[in-house]
């Protein structure tokens, strides 16, 4: 799989799950502007891989803004660095000397097997890949993205951050005809980093465990301030978990469109759960989450990375 991300506290944990679970092979990590500017999200991806002791996975920087309009980062949630909380001052690998879209193309073309794209930020890079290199589509097994919701939003009343940040990109991906799984706020708000979860991370007794605890502590303070939620939802790792073990989420096939022109609802995902529109289903929409199985996967991966055999 290729992980496209904008770390981001929950992206950071998603990267650990992706490289820490033995059932996955991460061919590359690509970064996009979203939670913070591209230089910061890229540095943060490199930091997390360095912390995890992973080398040899190329990291390439992609789009520094959405397809249309200007970038609005989520500094209120992720801080000035994009990964505020722990001290992440450590030597990191070099970023690849190639644009993320080109790295994706190469990795897909060179892979012996079809590749899963896991998208954890605005869908800008993925949309550009599909537009610029449509020949890769048959070699993409599926796209699993964190974004949208069957319910309400977190950035506007009906818009979720990743989709609101680049609605046109999401529209391109949703219309691509590829198999798509959507992990929206309706399920990610069930995976809460409670005090008990944070204590479990700390209790791993490794640097990585401590960093996860510190990341989640900062994330919790931001969610409390912004939303009045004492326990922050850990969105992005659920998309990775769904690739590792499909039974972690329950999905239903439904038509999903993105509102591009609404006066108040630009970037909202319009999920036709009850098949009112007559449109053909284009997305497997996550509607249920096995919360314990999810945390078990994540905790096991972080434990394994912290004490490699
Ligand atoms: C999504 O927005 C970002 O802030 C998170 O990293 C996640 O991908 C949740 O709406
Ligand atoms: Ca993200």
Largest sheet composition: 8 strands, mixed
CATH topology-level fold name: Inosine-uridine Nucleoside N-ribohydrolase, Chain A
In this entry the ligands are: beta-D-ribofuranose, calcium ion
- Could you give the order of the helices and strands? EHEHEHHEHEHHEHHHHEEEEH
Strand content: 5-15%
- What are the low-pLDDT stretches, counting only 5+ consecutive residues below 50? none
Helix content: 25-40%
Helix/sheet category: alpha/beta
Question: Can you name the CATH architecture?
Answer: Alpha-Beta Complex
Number of strands: 10
Top-tier CATH class: Alpha Beta
Rough shape?
A: globular
Keywords: Glycosidase, Hydrolase
InterPro entries: Inosine/uridine_hydrolase_dom, IUNH, Ribo_hydro-like
Pfam families: IU_nuc_hydro
GO molecular function, one term: purine nucleosidase activity
């Amino acid at each position: 799989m290729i992980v496209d991300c904008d770390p981001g506290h929950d992206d950071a944990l998603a990267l650990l799950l992706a490289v820490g679970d033995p059932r996955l092979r991460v061919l590359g990590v690509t970064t996009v502007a979203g939670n913070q500017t591209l230089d910061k999200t890229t540095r943060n991806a490199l930091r997390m891989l360095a912390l995890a002791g992973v080398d040899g996975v190329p990291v390439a920087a992609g789009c520094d803004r959405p397809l249309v309009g200007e970038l609005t980062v989520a500094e209120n949630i992720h801080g000035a660095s994009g990964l505020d909380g722990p001290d992440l001052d450590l030597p990191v690998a070099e970023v690849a000397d190639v644009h993320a879209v080109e790295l994706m193309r190469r990795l897909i073309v060179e892979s012996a097997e079809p590749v899963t794209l896991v998208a954890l930020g605005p869908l800008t890079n993925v949309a550009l890949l599909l537009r610029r290199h449509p020949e890769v589509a048959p070699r993409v097994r599926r796209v699993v993205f964190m974004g949208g919701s069957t319910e309400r939003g977190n950035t506007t009343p009906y818009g979720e951050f990743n989709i609101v940040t680049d609605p046109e990109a999401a529209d391109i991906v949703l219309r691509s005809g590829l198999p798509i799984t959507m992990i929206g706020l309706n399920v990610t708000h069930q995976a809460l980093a409670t005090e008990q979860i944070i204590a479990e991370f700390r209790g791993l007794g490794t640097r990585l465990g401590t960093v996860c605890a510190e990341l989640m502590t900062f994330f919790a303070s931001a969610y409390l301030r912004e939303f009045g939620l004492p326990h922050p939802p850990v969105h992005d790792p659920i998309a990775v978990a769904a690739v590792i073990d499909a039974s972690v989420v329950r999905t239903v096939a439904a038509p999903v469109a993105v509102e591009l022109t609404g006066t108040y609802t630009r970037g909202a995902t319009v999920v036709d759960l009850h098949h009112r529109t007559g449109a053909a289903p284009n997305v497997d929409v996550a509607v249920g989450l096995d919360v314990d199985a999810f945390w078990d996967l994540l905790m096991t991966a972080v434990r394994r990375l912290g004490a490699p055999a």
